[in-house]
Amino acid sequence: MFSPLEIKICVQSCVNPRPYLCNNTCFGTCPFNCYLYNNTCLGNCSEVGKLNYRGTCVTDCPSSDNVIYNNTCMWSCPAKLPFIFNSTCHSKCPSTHPLHLPDDSFWNTITCVKNCPKYSSYQLEFNGTCVKTCPESAIYFNGSCLERCPYSHKFNITRSTYRYRYQCVSSCKDYNLFSLDVNCVPLCPNFSINSSCVARCPESHSFVYHERAGRSQCVKECPANTYTISNKCYKQCPDPLVSFRGNLSCLQRCPTTHKFRYMYSNNEKLFRCEKTCLKPRFISGDKCLHNCPVSKPYSKGQTCVATCGSSYPFFHPVKKQCLKDCPQPYVISNNACIQKCPPDSRFLVSNVCTKSCPPAMKLWSPQQKGTVCGSTCTHGFVEQNKTCVTSCSGGQVIINNKCTGSKYCPREYKYTESSSSGNICRKTCLKGQYIQSLNCVRKCSKYHVVNECVDQCPVSHPFTDKHRFYTEPFPKECHQNCKPSQYVEGFYCTSSCNSDLYIATDKICVNKYPPSHPFKRDNLLVGAVCDKECGDSYLIDQKNNCIKVKECKLAKDMLIYKDRCVHECPPISFLDVTKKHCISLTDGTLISGFIFLAVSLVVLVCVCRLIIYRSPMYQTITSRELEENEEESHLLLDRKDDGDGGAEISQEVYDLSSSEHCVPARDYHNEQVFIDNTSIPMVQVHAPMIPVSDELQDVYVGEKDIDENTQVKTT
């Protein structure tokens, strides 16, 4: 047998099916110890500045979790190079990143870091390693776990957090603690001064202030409102001392003015002196207590006693109060008030537990608190054959709480009452019962008149009560009349009428206004009320409702007309200047207004006339006329002297029908002018004409005849 020959052929370049070159040999795939790069198999990727990764040369490792060892991407570093820095395995961390950061991953790697990451689980530093928690003996300070605190923060405080137990602090006082050596403690074993524990107080702070148990502070003097004894100050005096607020001192015994030692704190047993011991406290000797002590367990009023005594022979088993009698539902057993007789004394005689009933009390009535002895059966039992039973047998009727042996009542017992014990025969029904078909019942099925049940109220008692807000169930009582405080609504007596009904003055609810009371007025207590009139402070609206004047004034679309509140003024009225009131034209005040207006116009005309008479223009015209008249007078005198007898001066006639009217400012036509010289006769002069306005025409025309006859004496 012959083996095939290996033939090696020299080629210029590798081609398929052996395209990859490694150590001058062409391969179909790169061998195990070579890495593929640009169709070339390299012995190490470092030849081209690359990294080895699964038979391929890469620029960077494909995963951030990869580390680089011997120029190869790996998942973890070997044991001889356990530390990772810049994703490369090292034998130790560099000085720039000296701390070791563990990893919780599967590979359990350790990374070199400059500082422990603040927000990771490994944020604390201990001996060059980032840890989750400080060891038991280490103390936390500034993100590190130390064996002892630095001098700047020399005190350690117990913190008990899940990361560390102790912490370094600069002062214990900041945490309301005391410094004891290098530790911060909540309480000093002896005394404290300025938040430091001391064995004894110095002379400069000779007083000891006992703020509370375990806190004794050295002070220069006792604080205000503290109790003192010797050189000790107390916020509250401890037992057996007692606090006296009179002089803020701690005493062995209270003074006679405040004799009671009042215990105001059960937990700490603190006492203070008081004048009186107020309820519900109890007095035991000179003490005022919340509860009586064991030596004196019973209380007689407020006083604690060892036994109750003959004046208060009984006591409450729980409250330990001495009592003259046991209240219901208690019974008496050995002077104790209890709820049920004990088994060895199960019989009750006058509420006292006994071992047997006396011979005179042969009837027994079993009760929850004991078996009652008596000559008659108690409530809930009836006597049958000298025995107390719960009900009569054979349907027997009951008379005087005894079974009669008959099923029917005697003739004189006309009424019967049904009970759990049987039918009871009665001559009359008991108080609080009603008669219904010769039966005594606790309540009627429908109505009742006095103590008799009826199906409907009779004419003599027609009214029943009705509540405004809910319907009362049967039975209902029939009344002859409603109460004075109630209102009548049909045949019902009610506290107020329904919202759609009105109340007349005789307290009758109606569904419309009666003619005698046509106006509706709202009342908050009883509802709508019918009234004869609304009153002074009210107006009537268009629906005959009484509303307040203020409401009508404030309403935008409402006006006030007399005693009404309307939407618009009636035809015979007009709106005043306030635009809220309507004024009637027929009002007496309006007629008076017209008269006043007419008088005012007349006065105005007179004033105008007076102004015209006194005007300068009128005075000028008058002066000119007077001068002319004087000249004419002299002329007449001259003529008389000449024997002319006096010529008459013709009178001018005024035509008042012309378009422009003139009135005389002064009528000299018929005036006689008198002169001191008696030889001068009367002369007639012309009256000057002054134009006037149309408004004054009628006035002047009416005065014409008067002015024509006016005579003026002239000197």
Distance between the terminal alpha carbons, to the nearest Å? 198 Å
Mean pLDDT: 79
Q: How much of the residues is beta strand, in percent?
A: 25-35%
Assign an overall shape. extended
Radius of gyration: 65 Å
* Sheet with the most strands: spatial strand order: 52-51-54-53-56-55
* Share in helix: under 10%
Main sheet record = 6 strands, mixed
Structural class: mainly beta
Overview of this protein structure:
- Among the domains are: 9-59, no CATH class; 187-235, no CATH class; 246-306, no CATH class; 309-359, Hormone Receptor, Insulin-like Growth Factor Receptor 1, Chain A, domain 2 (Hormone Receptor, Insulin-like Growth Factor Receptor 1, Chain A domain 2, Ribbon); 591-631 and 659-708, no CATH class.
- The chain has four helices and 68 strands.
- It has a six-stranded mixed β-sheet, with no helix packed on it.
- A hairpin with a 2-residue loop joins strand 31 (282-284) and strand 32.
- It is extended and about 145 Å long.
Feature tags:
715 residues, mainly beta, 4 helices, 10% helix, disordered C terminus
Task: Break the fold down into its secondary structure elements and pairings.
Layout: E1 20-22, E2 25-27, E3 35-37, E4 40-42, E5 51-53, E6 56-58, E7 67-69, E8 72-74, E9 83-85, E10 88-90, E11 99-102, E12 110-113, E13 124-126, E14 129-131, E15 139-141, E16 144-146, E17 155-158, E18 166-169, E19 178-180, E20 183-185, E21 191-193, E22 196-198, E23 207-212, E24 215-219, E25 227-229, E26 232-234, E27 242-244, E28 249-251, E29 260-265, E30 270-274, E31 282-284, E32 287-289, E33 298-300, E34 303-305, E35 314-315, E36 322-323, E37 331-333, E38 336-338, E39 347-349, E40 352-354, E41 363-366, E42 371-374, E43 382-384, E44 387-389, E45 398-399, E46 402-403, E47 415-419, E48 422-426, E49 434-436, E50 439-441, E51 447-449, E52 452-454, E53 463-466, E54 476-479, E55 487-489, E56 492-494, E57 502-503, E58 509-510, E59 519-523, E60 527-531, E61 538-540, E62 546-548, H1 549-554, E63 559-561, E64 564-566, E65 573-575, E66 581-584, H2 588-613, H3 616-641, E67 662-664, E68 689-691, H4 697-708
Parallel strand pairs: 9-12, 23-26, 29-32, 39-42, 51-54, 53-56, 57-60, 63-66
Antiparallel strand pairs: 1-2, 3-4, 5-6, 7-8, 9-10, 11-12, 13-14, 15-16, 17-18, 19-20, 21-22, 23-24, 25-26, 27-28, 29-30, 31-32, 33-34, 35-36, 37-38, 39-40, 41-42, 43-44, 45-46, 47-48, 49-50, 51-52, 53-54, 55-56, 57-58, 59-60, 61-62, 63-64, 65-66, 67-68
